[in-house]
From TrEMBL:
Keywords: Hydrolase, Kinase, Phosphoprotein, Repeat, Transferase. Gene3D superfamilies: P-loop containing nucleotide triphosphate hydrolases. This is non-specific serine/threonine protein kinase. Its EC number is 2.7.11.1. It comes from Pseudomonas koreensis.
Length: 500
């Protein structure tokens, strides 16, 4: 068979877009690669996608299995809706009948040398017959057990590598890391090493991640990358690196539609900037972010809401009661709302969702409500800060205005946020409860704005069926942020109670 020059590309695609991105295009043709990971991490699924991608390109592929039967492999493929066609040969390597004979098992002639030799012979014979350009060998644990020593195992791996190089085949060796004799033999022999890992949090679904440990002569995307296994195969979400993305956009001010809010913000929020809305539960953090999103839709722009903490039906009803009809905005096609389950979603997949919305949906306003829910998807706080740094920088470079909410612990006085990302945000809106004239009231102030000037005043606001009403600056009160202010003036600037 002439592999002619049907395969002009230097790389063999894995059939997984995200994994190809990490590998800078795929696997270098004519080399041996190692895919390792404990059972259940997705090695077989990735291997099948690799062969299916080859079959789709007209390449001949071979799956040599020492651990699973052909029937099991085909059933696994069928569960993803795949049919292994004529371009994919499955070879189930079984011991010769003579080795299964009871008499031979008691004979001095029966030895691991004979088993290993027979296994290798069968592998080479099927390769000679089928002449594949893509090969899967599943798994090395069986060969390691047959070899019984590191020296013989290394010699066998080298023999397999040199043999396949004669056919310019791209080989993927699978290793399930289950034998006691674990060494780095194949790491040194293989052209590249990919490791799959599975983490089980205290609550929620398992988390899977992939890392390229080695790739000779190739710059790859290092570090850990999240991936999931769904019906239809493996999806890999490459770690977001904001520095790789640039966008051209005109920086303009976005109005909220509330004159007092815009006055506090020095005219509005700039595109390509991030805003953090900080305050205790019930102060209206979600409402403020929705006000900016609905204002964007009213201007004919597109907005996306990623909701972690609230059930969508309740959110729709609550917003409708204060004059925001999210259902009607959804029907316009300019508003995207996604419910995010932090217990089921990895940080990498969330970043991928946001990226896809901005890139494909041309979203100009992004709302993340809230970072408390996003933090639940993180293994530790430092990871949240790093993820948010890259995500916010990416969104800024795309010209999107991003709004994030964080619920603080406590209701009045000194409060703590579960995570401090105030230094990442371009604008920080602070909401507070305070007591005055025998009532619990709400106050809003702008703590920081990198992109321009803003009011340094504190204003009272009220949430009612008419939406949000913001009053005049509380210039005659002192100590509002502490929760129990002192009144210093002659006339009160507080909002009048409704109906009075």
């Amino acid at each position: 068979m002439t592999t002619s020059n049907v395969f002009n590309s230097v790389k063999a695609s894995t059939g997984i877009e995200g994994l190809d991105d990490i590998l800078a295009g795929g696997l270098s043709r004519g080399h041996v690669f190692l895919l390792e990971g404990e059972p259940g991490t997705g090695k077989t699924t990735i291997a099948l996608q690799f062969l299916l991608a080859g079959a789709l390109a007209g390449e001949r592929s071979l799956y040599i299995t020492l651990s699973e039967t052909e029937r099991e492999l085909r059933q696994g493929a069928a569960s993803h809706g795949w049919e292994l066609d004529n371009n994919i040969e499955i070879f189930e390597l079984t011991p010769p009948e003579s080795l299964l004979d009871a008499e031979h098992q008691q004979s001095l002639l029966y030895s691991s040398d004979l088993e290993l030799g027979e296994a290798t012979k069968q592998i080479f014979e099927v390769v000679e017959r089928f002449k594949p350009t893509r090969v899967i060998l599943d798994s090395l644990s069986e060969i390691r057990l047959l070899a019984q020593s590191s020296l013989r195992y290394r010699r066998q791996i080298l023999a397999i590598k040199h043999y396949f190089s004669r056919y310019e085949a791209t080989v993927l060796l699978l290793d399930d890391l289950t034998t006691e004799l674990l060494d780095k033999t194949v790491h040194s022999v293989a052209h590249g090493v990919i490791r799959l890992e599975e983490l089980t949090p205290n609550y929620g679904a398992e988390r899977r991640r992939v890392r390229v440990i080695k790739y000779r002569g190739q710059k790859y995307r290092g570090g850990y990358h999240d991936f999931t296994i769904l019906a239809g195969g493996v999806q890999v979400f490459p770690r977001l690196i904001a520095a790789e993305h640039r966008g051209e956009y005109a920086r303009v001010q976005m109005k909220s539609g509330i004159a007092e809010m815009d006055a506090l913000l020095g005219g509005g929020i700039e595109t390509g900037s991030s805003t953090l809305i900080l305050g205790p539960a019930g102060t209206g953090k979600s409402l403020i972010s929705m006000i900016f999103a609905t204002a964007a839709v009213a201007r004919g722009e597109k907005a996306a809401l990623f909701v972690f903490d609230e059930e969508l039906g309740l959110l729709f009803e609550r917003m409708k009661n204060i004059g925001i009809d999210l259902k009607a905005l959804l029907d316009t096609g300019n508003l995207l709302i996604e419910q995010v389950d932090a217990a089921e979603l990895t940080p990498g997949e969330f970043s991928h969702r946001v990226r896809r919305a901005v890139d494909e949906g041309q979203i100009s306003t992004v709302v993340i409500d809230s970072l408390n829910g996003y933090q639940a998807a993180m293994p530790e706080e430092n990871a949240l800060v790093l993820h948010m740094h890259e995500l916010l920088l990416y969104l800024n470079r795309k010209g999107a205005a991003t709004f994030m909410t964080v619920a603080q612990h406590g209701l009045v006085g000194d409060m703590m946020a579960p995570v401090d990302i105030t230094y990442l945000a371009d604008t920080v809106i602070l909401l507070r409860y305070f007591e005055a004239l025998g009532k619990v009231r709400r106050a809003i102030s702008i703590i920081k704005k990198r992109t321009g000037s803003h009011e340094s005043t504190i204003r009272e606001y009220r949430i009612s069926a008419q939406g949000m009403t913001i009053g005049e600056p509380l210039e005659t009160f002192q100590g509002v942020l502490r929760g129990v202010p002192t009144y210093l003036g002659a006339s009160s600037p507080l909002l009048k109670d409704e109906g009075l």
